[in-house]
Amino acid sequence: MSEEIALMKGNEAIAHAAIRYGVDGYFGYPITPQSEIIETLMEEAPWKTTGMVVLQAESEVSAINMVYAGAACGKYAMTSSSSPGISLKQEGISYMAGAELPALIVNVQRGGPGLGTIQPSQADYFQTVKGGGHGDYKLITLAPNSVQEMADFVGLAFDLAFKYRNPSMILTDGVIGQMMEKVKLPAWRQRRTEQEIREQCPWATLGKTADRKPNIITSLELDSAAMEKNNERFQAKYREVEATEVRYEEVKCDDADYLLVAFGSAARICMKTIDLARKEGIKVGLLRPITLWPFPTKVLHSYGGKVKGMLTVELNAGQMVEDVRLAVNGQIPVSHYGRLGGIVPTPDGVLAALKEKMSI
Amino acid sequence: MNKDLLISPENLVYTKPELMNDNHMHYCPGCSHGVVHKLIAEIIQELGMQEKTIGIAPVGCAVFAYNYIDIDWQEAAHGRAPALATATKRLLPDRMVFTYQGDGDLAAIGTAETIHAANRGENIAIIFINNGIYGMTGGQMAPTTLKDMKTSTSPEGRNTQTMGNPLKILDLLALLDGVCLATRVSVHTAAAVKKTKRMIRLAFENSMAGKGTSIVEVVSTCNSGWKMTPAQANDWMVENMFPVYPIGDLKNI
């Protein structure tokens, strides 16, 4: 079959990828800058073709709880929102982690705190990778840097979520969500049959058959000894994800004296900075974490023994820089450069910051 | 006469529904929950829907409802049961989906989820236990707590000037176009139990007939929270709860 190439926004790519991947249900609530996701789904009307359910809920809280139920039925269920709405979803995300439910949440970040701005930001890094909701849990987090990756990561996020029975997040921002690029649309997949779901997800609440005990989806366990065991099981799963699922991209790192460390839209800006720097004879590379959790700690640690310094570039006041410093563990200087409140850094600005902070 | 001779199938006048398991119930003696659980188990069994029913348990006294009736269950966050039921029914339209919620869950923290699921006319049954108090957390004021009723967070009695009025949420729900059944029942007498069973069965049947949302409010006792004997609690409910929450259909179409 020939490739299907289209020009579209990142948000639209998420919607098309979801339909093509065979997602069973999308539940969302409008918020800028991600409303194109639900608008595209409503326009495409996949309930007429694949049978996918698309529902506009009364709130982000309700939407995430619909996703909880969809996942509890073993279905591919997803929601999307932007920062203030993602804050509202934290309760449901924590419950899904506690009930070990696989699902996809998309956060097209905007500047905060509070109602903030509708312009892009990466200030929800801490919220996403350090918890956000209550309790000891982790969220598998993918950070796309292009419209193509917006499309590709929908399937990847579901694959990882179901592999580990854990919610996944695509953490992106208003730049990637709103910009238009060429995208190769993912292949069509059939939605799973109920028989396939029963086989793949024997825990799913599809109705109790005579051959098994009732399936109960809950995060509740009042016996502390049993709850500690549950937590230990979660932690063992998280260690396995950290050992197996780290993803990152290296750009011109082989001969680099300095590394930029950036994800998503900030990493796109850094691509230009690398060229500007190298024209001036400064050997700069980029290490782009693709999974923010699990974080590429080992590779960053190894570069700590090779380069003279690292600069994280983030659309926030310095969040991922803490994880980079933990990874590097004092081998070399690690600094941060960021713009706040919806302002996007320029390639020149990144280069100037690199020179200043690394005393080049 | 030897009692063993009496225990024979032809003498059987009552049996525990097969779907009720032998787990020890955590409910207080005299509580209404056990009776309503039994009715639900009987109805699912009589409808032959054991393999097609998914229950949504609340936060509150019925948080462990899933321990007693042998069907598939999802445990919801506080107040979110109608959102879970919405998605479950939309994704599995041929399943029978119901929520089981108390007054704090349905009429306080879950007001938005309840009203909007009902307004969409989701084909679900909502079983609503209204005992006017938060039982699980130890007897705090609920949205349905009566005027001047003493609870641990209204120790002088509910002051409607500062604490709001008893919320007649079924009256609100009955106004919504998506609702086909809004009815109040109770389980304090044998006759009332039989009526309640008929209405819960109707709610389940409505959900499978695609008629919209059915809400059965069971005006109930909480003798522990009310600090009464079970018999006193029944009398107190008739005298004080029924005038505010009158038994009968508000809507049945």
Mind explaining what this structure looks like?
The complex is a heterodimer of chains A (360) and B (253). Chain A has 360 residues and is α/β, with parallel strands linked by helices. Chain A has two domains: 5-194, Rossmann fold (3-Layer(aba) Sandwich); 248-358, 3-Layer(aba) Sandwich (Rossmann fold), CATH 3.40.50. Chain A is built from 13 helices and 15 strands. Chain A has helices at residues 10-21, 36-44, 60-72, 83-99, 125-129, 147-164, 174-178, 194-200, 224-244, 264-279, 297-303, 320-328, 347-358; strands at 5-9, 25-28, 53-56, 77-81, 104-109, 140-142, 168-173, 180-184, 216-217, 248-251, 258-261, 284-289, 291-293, 309-314, 334-338. In chain A, helix 3 (60-72) runs parallel beside helix 4 (83-99), helix 10 packs across helix 13 and helix 11 crosses helix 12. The mean pLDDT of chain A is 97. Chain B is globular, with a radius of gyration of 18 Å. Chain B has a single domain (26-133, 166-252), classed as Rossmann fold. In chain B, helix 8 (190-209) links the parallel strand 7 (179-186) and strand 8. By secondary structure, chain B is α/β, with parallel strands linked by helices. In chain B, the strands form two sheets. Chain B has a seven-stranded mixed sheet, sandwiched between helices. The chains are: A alpha/beta (360), B alpha/beta (253). The A-B interface holds A 24-25, 27, 53, 55, 57-59, 61-63, 65-70, 72-73, 75, 77, 91-92, 95, 99, 205-210, 213-220 and B 50-54, 56-57, 63, 66, 70-77, 80, 83-88, 90-92, 95, 112-113, 116.
What is the compact description of this entry?
Chain A is built from 13 helices and 15 strands. Chain A is an alpha/beta fold. Chain A folds into 2 domains: 5-194, Thiamin diphosphate (ThDP)-binding fold, Pyr/PP domains (Rossmann fold, 3-Layer(aba) Sandwich), CATH 3.40.50.970; 248-358, Rossmann fold (3-Layer(aba) Sandwich).
In terms of topology, how is this protein built?
The complex is a heterodimer of chains A (360) and B (253).
Chain A: E1 5-9, H1 10-21, E2 25-28, H2 36-44, E3 53-56, H3 60-72, E4 77-81, H4 83-99, E5 104-109, H5 125-129, E6 140-142, H6 147-164, E7 168-173, H7 174-178, E8 180-184, H8 194-200, E9 216-217, H9 224-244, E10 248-251, E11 258-261, H10 264-279, E12 284-289, E13 291-293, H11 297-303, E14 309-314, H12 320-328, E15 334-338, H13 347-358
Parallel strand pairs in A: 2-3, 2-4, 4-5, 5-7, 6-7, 11-12, 11-14, 14-15
Antiparallel strand pairs in A: 1-8, 6-13, 10-12
Chain B: H1 3-6, H2 33-46, E1 53-57, E2 72-75, H3 81-91, E3 96-102, H4 103-109, H5 111-119, E4 125-130, E5 133-134, E6 140-141, H6 160-163, H7 169-174, E7 179-186, H8 190-209, E8 213-219, H9 223-226, H10 230-244, E9 248-252
Helix pairs in contact in B: 2-8, 3-5, 4-5
